[in-house]
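User: I'm new to structure prediction. If I give you an amino acid sequence, what do you actually give back? Let's try with this one:
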Amino acid sequence: MKRLLILAGMALSVGLAQGGTLTLYTSEILADVNALVEAFRAQNPGVQVQVFRSGTGEVVAKLRAELEAGNPQPDLLWFANEDFLRELAGKGLLRRIPPTVPGYPVQYAHGGGLYYEVRLLYNVIAVNTQRVREAPTSWRDLLKPPFPGLLAMPDPNFSGAALATLGTLSQRLGFGFFEALKAGGMRIEQSNPVLQQKLARGEYGLAITTDFGVRQEVAKGAPLATVYPRDGAILVPTPIAVTSWSKNPELATRFLLFLLSPEAQRLFAERGYYPVMPGAPKPKGSPAQVVGIRARFADSETLSRFNALFGLRR
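Assistant: Good question. You get back a string of structure tokens that encode the predicted 3D arrangement of the chain. For your 314 residues, that looks like this:
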């Protein structure tokens, strides 16, 4: 997937000095980010937001290179790699934003406000109902005889959510779980969006993927269903943080807090995500309650074993 650099909106020259500019590095779906950026700009005329979007692995690699060169660019970081954000926080490279939003669940303000969850997403089992008649109900069900050759998941080198799948299920079920899936013909696609589109077309019958993306495909008419495994859907941390080197920290903080506003939380729900704020609407077609297990991202040794198993190269 090509890296994307967009400029959200064309600010008037008069408003630019008043509004300011932000740079966001993210692995979030670009269309969803654009919708949120435009809603933010409607409340903040003259603001420009530059967005670099790619898979989590590529976003982290880009920022590491900039840090090594002594020239980091983003004001805001938003991707599925809590371990890397924890690393940055330990070096004093994230700005603490006190959790002052009324009603915000304080357990999602990590490090006392160094980075925030702004909506929730889960890794689940997605099913093409035209190819699979009896859906699995647990992660272990994916090993049963009816499913070999039908399953795929994203590449954990590229997708932070897939890295969470690999780490969490390796810890809970053992790495042999993935060895058995490989023996049963599981395939690897680069990203969740690519995988979900192929699942919708019937190229696969099952996928380990993100719940919101499945709902977005269903809204387009795809014959898909979402299974939240009874042994726990994987709650993937995807927090947002303001960097310590930000040239416009007040505006960056304003963007972060906007994502917790009723308008932004409604936009999240409309696009298939669970809002993080109590009382916000739930996404259409979603269960009221989910049995979730907090993700654990795979370490480098587990990722290397996975790469060797599936013949992947970084």
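You can read the tokens as a compact description of the fold. Here is one thing that stands out. The chain has two domains: 4-119+238-275, 120-235+289-310.
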